User: Which sequence fits this backbone?
């Protein structure tokens, strides 16, 4: 896979290059850049299959670099010294998020994920970036749910609610279908910011348009079309009722 490495720290860049040579010989390094603007130009010109990207960089950080691209078609691996950007990073559908110093085993896993994604063809990143360039960039019509075979594209209006299952999230659809994806509920919530979804409880993210009724009480609960009762946490009650009255 043709790859580009972008990190403003020269030592970190060289260390990653050496580690890739040792553990992932199929990765061909097409370019290494400490200047993110030059890295951006290289991505546009070289059209890599895989990009390893730092986040905290001067002039242009990793997120700003991605926003400057027009529907990128590469797989993305963030390599950073900070863990607080993980949720935002996965909103860009990165295949992995590696912390420095990079562990060889984790790097091998990240490259394998990228290879799988490359074989599938159209990446979830493509889909999300396309959605973000629609007339209303805060609204999505569909979401791409990753699976072992590729992606299942689901209309957001068909999703009733999402339930946290540790580091996984389960999607419940109006037709009775369910999908389990390897992303946390926090990542899903971040990805769906600005839509009709609301985090009413630490374990649940609900589509407000599917709520059948709200039962008051100590926090209370909502009743969904499949007759499932979902609790409203005390700290979310005021914000929820304020939003609920808009519908």
Assistant:
């Amino acid at each position: 896979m043709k790859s580009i490495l972008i990190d403003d720290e020269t030592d970190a860049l060289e260390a990653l290059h050496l580690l890739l040579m040792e553990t992932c010989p199929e990765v061909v390094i097409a370019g290494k850049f400490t200047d993110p603007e030059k890295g951006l130009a290289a991505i546009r010109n070289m059209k890599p299959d895989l990009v390893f990207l730092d986040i905290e960089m001067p002039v242009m950080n990793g997120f700003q670099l991605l926003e400057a691209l027009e529907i990128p078609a590469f797989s993305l691996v963030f390599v950073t010294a900070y863990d607080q950007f993980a949720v935002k990073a996965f909103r860009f559908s990165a295949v992995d998020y590696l912390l420095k110093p990079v562990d060889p085993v984790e790097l091998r896993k990240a490259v394998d994920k990228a290879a799988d994604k490359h074989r599938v063809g159209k990446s979830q990143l493509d889909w999300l970036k396309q959605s973000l360039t629609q007339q209303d960039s805060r609204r999505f019509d569909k979401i791409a749910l990753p699976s072992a075979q590729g992606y299942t594209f689901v209309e957001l209006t068909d999703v009733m609610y999402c339930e946290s299952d540790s580091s996984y999230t389960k999607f419940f659809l109006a037709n009775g279908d369910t999908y389990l994806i390897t992303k946390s509920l926090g990542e899903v919530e971040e990805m769906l910011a600005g839509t009709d979804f609301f985090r009413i409880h630490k374990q649940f993210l609900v589509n407000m348009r599917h709520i059948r009724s709200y039962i008051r009480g100590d926090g209370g609960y909502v009743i969904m079309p499949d007759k499932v009762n979902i609790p409203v946490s005390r700290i979310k009650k005021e914000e929820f009722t304020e939003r609920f009255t808009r519908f």
